[in-house]
Predict the structure.
Amino acid sequence: MKRDKKKLKHQSVRSVSKVHEMKIDASRGYHGGKRVPHGASSPHSFDDDLFRWSAKEIDWEYRGDWDWDLKPAELREFLCVIEQYSASTWKELISQGGNKHHFQATDTLSKGARDRLGDLFSRSDSEYPEQIFRFRIAAKVRLWGFREGGIFKILWYDRDHRVYPVKKKNT
């Protein structure tokens, strides 16, 4: 028992000194045995970039609650909103009205939406996403897709809040 305690204490001291060495290395610009140039910037944040979008990932094949069979008024609303967003940065959009535009964990989506994502991602080399991004266009209308850097890759037009249904309050 004494030997085990002594061994643990020795390991603990080694761990503390190893952490100390790592801090010193980091302050000198070393990272994982490699020298990091002084003044190297951290990974780029796209929050200050203008919103850009892509229609390459639109789920044209899906027929149902969040398909792209848009009525003229829906199409006009969609195009006006996406043009409006294009004049803003991601930071400006995300800060609008609290929780208006945000990431949503895919495991919280409706079963139909999760199943559809499963179908889409089983056909591609990409991994099933842990989160998806949504824009609130109107009271029940949502635009769903993926944010890759500063580009929003549009996936679904959800006209009736069916991708992520919520229970009405006080009913």
Q: What stands out?
A: Residues 8-41 have pLDDT under 50 and may be disordered.
